[in-house]
Amino acid sequence: MPRRRACRDLNYSESMIKRLIKRVFGKVSPARQVGRAQGIAFAQHKVGRDGISDSAQRVTDGLQAAGFQAYVVGGAVRDLLLGCKPKDFDVATNATPEQVRRVFRRARIIGRRFKLVHVMFGNETVEVSTFRRAMEVDEAETDAHGRILRDNEFGDMEQDAARRDFTANALFYDPATQEIIDYHHGYDDIRANVLRMIGDPEVRYREDPVRMLRAVRLAAKLGMKIDSASVAPIAKMKELLRNVPEARLFDEMLKLLLSGHALACIKKLRAKGLHHGLLPMLDVILEQPMGEKFVMAALHNTDQRIAEGKPTSPAFLFAALLWHEVLAAWNAKQAAGERPIAALHEAMDDVLARQRAQLAIPRRYDTVMKELWLLQPRFEQRGGQRPFRLLVLPRFRAAYDFLLLRCESGEADPVLGEWWTEFQHADEARRTEMLQPDNGAPKKRRRRKKPSAAVQGELPID
């Protein structure tokens, strides 16, 4: 066993040395034909191996040393060409998941519909997929509307490129040679800042309607223009989103809202009429000047936090998007004579139930969203011990940020936000000075419990 391992290590080292010599001394033309693809050399695209994470390089080097093809693929290559830092690196190979797992010590196979391999190096995980092919509609399992339900078949590199959604996402980068393999002119489209669907857009949208949302998200995130042929079918095919499982819609919506370009994405969704299947009450909210201002402020705040590397909460964002719908229902129930807190509880439940029928917001977010909403009326109470009790609640900071958005949009008095900003940072003496007369509901007098007859009998009689 040690001798076999030593031979394998020696072969791996020799392979690495050969590739290094080729990379340093080999003369590669700016572009060459690789079968039906175009090979784009480093001299033309300028994306160096040093832009690839060490872990992704170890995966491609390891698979190539074992005799397999291996490339960094998809969004990472696209982002590097655009001058952006990729969030993660995916690798595609002709090795099966079982073969990949045998090459790396820390690797595990995941997935039921289509197996992937997660190769782990410290805190970084590289996702490795086997080349797949897009099955023909008559081969694949589809629903009544043409949406593909099951189409997973292993294929070759060219077939793997063809099944991808956009030309910009169908690029294969070889860290060993620093060459990009391009089957669909994605490199030219990226240079022209165009987002183009591979194949017939109408057919591809019918196969997977979520591609319409992805087109809008990527266009907004990358500042690219969707080409006319790809955008034309969206208006007549947007109803197909109703057939997509709610969990998938939620995942795509979450990517959109946490992309760092949520404001631009929502505007593009509205322009294309795609938001109806995601946040159906968004139109109602945005028709109200105050509601639109609040939602836009919330989206801008989220984008800014992501740009600054600060944590963001999906629950906070969804609470902001639905707040004015909750507010309208709450006011209506109070006008009908219901008590304020009971009316707020009912309004929250009604809005979440209506929203859940369209977009499957996980119930784990419900508790946080409700807490943020329920704490808003308590900011009005600035007398007695109420402000002190509010300060120590776990959700105070998030609820306070929510209050500031309300003040910024004009829904709440800015003076209220300023008061709480000062109060939370003041010392005890200043906090006591800031307290306002307690205008809460008058306290009910507690009735004294009448002593029982047995106790009365024991009392002394004057």
How would you explain this protein's 3D organization?
The chain has 462 residues and is α+β, with helices and mostly antiparallel strands. It has a domain at 1-191: Beta Polymerase, domain 2. It is built from 23 helices and 15 strands. It has helices at residues 2-25, 42-45, 54-65, 75-81, 97-103, 157-163, 186-191, 201-207, 210-222, 228-231, 234-237, 246-257, 262-272, 282-287, 289-307, 314-335, 340-356, 366-375, 386-391, 396-409, 414-425, 428-434, 453-458; strands spanning 31-34, 37-40, 70-73, 90-93, 107-110, 116-121, 124-130, 132-133, 141-142, 148-150, 153-154, 171-174, 179-182, 194-195, 225-226. Strands 1-2-13-12-3-4-7-6-5 form a nine-stranded mixed beta sheet, sandwiched between helices. Strands 8-11 form a two-stranded antiparallel sheet. A two-stranded antiparallel sheet has the order 9-10. The chain is elongated.
